Amino acid sequence: MSRSAVSKVALAVVLLLFGACAQESDDSPLVVGGSGPEGPLDTDDAENQPETPDNLRDLVDGSIDDVESFWTEAYPQVYGSEFEPVEGYFGYGPDTETPPCGNPRPSYEEIADNAFYCPESDIIAADEVRLIPFLAENFHPFTVGIVFAHEYGHAIQARAGAFSDRSVVTEMQADCFAGAWTAWVADGNSSNFGVQEDQLDFSVAGMISISDVPGTSPDDFAAHGSGFDRIGSFQDGFDKGAERCAEYDTDPNLPVVEIEFTVDDAQTGGNLPSSELVPLLEDNLDLFYETLFSEKLDGDWESIERVAVVDPDSDDIECGGQTLSGSDLEYASYFCADENIVVIDGTNLVPLLEEIGDFAVAAEVARLYAVDAQLQLGIEDRNKTSSLQADCLTGVWASASFPDENGDTQLGEAGGLTLSAGDLDEGIQGFITYGGDRTDETGTVFERVQALRAGFLDGVGSCDLGN
User: Is there a domain that residue 232 lies in?
Assistant: First the structure.
């Protein structure tokens, strides 16, 4: 995030005619738990599905076979003509011949750690020595199937003449197609794959890992989209099917949130230290909820007294009639209603979130403000439903602090903060790294991202607050 007063940002993107799509990353977020976007997958259905293969040869062959089976059914329904499979698949490595794509063929160094569709020879190619093992080992073998479904999506675009004149949209459509295939698998149609409860969350982590580096220009010829864009498109396909994905290249309102760094943010990576961020957050969140309550929720917002950033080794905090100290405050993240304060562990939790980025800290504080907003609205139960509501409200708040094409936010200069490139991805990484072990209470990573995205894109009405 950055202080307000930002330069203009460009949201236009250009066509990616050819390029590597999936790329190995140095970052491997940890994931625990998982489910589909509408809730945990049905246990009986999961048990009746085939087990996703671990053998890499079977995994690659099964992926191609499976995606072609999906499109044999889906292509006539979506595009009104018979599906034609690609000419072939080409696996390569550092000691093999490279794919027949271009003249001369690319060197291995140019396409290492990648998977891509080559329209010239109508083949899908992938680095089987480095990329495929990396994805299977770090993000579950099912993620390999998603990568091939994405690349096959580009082959579908070529067949249907559906390439957008915006590169990011082209990639988001391929992600959407991959989501539609995943839903087809989840419905029990695959003979090669099964979707177990942990696999979609691992796939969210994989998509964050292979998204664009924060600050990438959406005008970049090779731009693929932020993690927020890519995961959202995947969820769109999972929820609404390939028919929705087919609309992407002609949808003038398709949201793309990838933005460049401003000059100031480029020097800091768009991050503020927590000592500067927290006071700005307090003012920003108060203004946001004052505005939201008065304009949308027909009420008056009662300000939170303060955000207490505590040291468990030395601080005592009164919370709910108890004195919290020591281990009670380690990794703490509470809203204490009786004292009307937010409590967060500044010694252990905040530094870990700061390693991800300042928005991971901001999103956690904003979630606690959302809990207070729920209480002020009479929503007192603390369960998965209310937790996802809080994530949704956090998305609404994030939207109010997101710059438009002129660099302005809904809260204006009085808001004091503006989201920077990569901030939304930092929030998702916070879900992945620290929020995946409480799925019964909070929802899975997949569900939490869906709730955050709904609030960000569709506003407070999508949060189902009962108003």
Answer: yes
